[in-house]
Amino acid sequence: MRIYNFEETLPQEKLDELYMKEAFSLAEQAFREDEVPIGAVIVAQNKIIGKGYNLTERLNDVTAHAEMQALTAAANFLGGKYLKDCTLYVTVEPCVMCAGASYWTQVSRIVYGAVDEKRGYTVVAPNILHPKTQIIGGVLEEQCGALMKTFFRSKR
Ligand SMILES: [Zn+2]
């Protein structure tokens, strides 16, 4: 009997939305824990192999961004440091640190939600990604951005 994988039949655009929703639910978890609400998942062959959300407050660690957690988890899962056939989904454009970390993993694709006009890597170092990394922005942009706005408004 053939095991039918529904997800394989979905167009990439739909898959990207689906996984961004997963990342978004992690961002909501961060929000509930009073962390800057950013979530990330890493997908290989239609499976989530790493996930994370921002934990800089809880861990007292400025490097504890969602992407860093997810990259580490995915490398642990695969037992190797390279993520060549993986996609990183993150609700907000990566900062220069996370974009730099993604360079070392050689991740195939990065898909992000909202732009970060102040701290996004494109503002600081637009050429920092690995030349083989494909980048796509604006997936579920509105809801990802709205969660950030709500969070920072509550901080004022
Ligand atoms: Zn970052």
UniProtKB/TrEMBL annotation:
Pfam families: dCMP_cyt_deam_1. Keywords: Hydrolase, Metal-binding, tRNA processing, Zinc. It is an enzyme of class 3 (hydrolase). Residues 14-124 form the CMP/dCMP-type deaminase domain. SUPFAM superfamilies: Cytidine deaminase-like. Its cofactor is Zn(2+). Binds 1 zinc ion per subunit. It comes from the Bacteria. Zn(2+) binds at residues 65, 95, 98. Belongs to the cytidine and deoxycytidylate deaminase family. Homodimer. The active site is at residue 67. The keyword Cytoplasm does not apply. GO terms for biological process: tRNA wobble adenosine to inosine editing. This is tRNA-specific adenosine deaminase. Transmembrane segments: none annotated. Its EC number is 3.5.4.33. One of its GO terms (molecular function) is tRNA-specific adenosine-34 deaminase activity. It catalyses: adenosine(34) in tRNA + H2O + H(+) = inosine(34) in tRNA + NH4(+). Catalyzes the deamination of adenosine to inosine at the wobble position 34 of tRNA(Arg2).
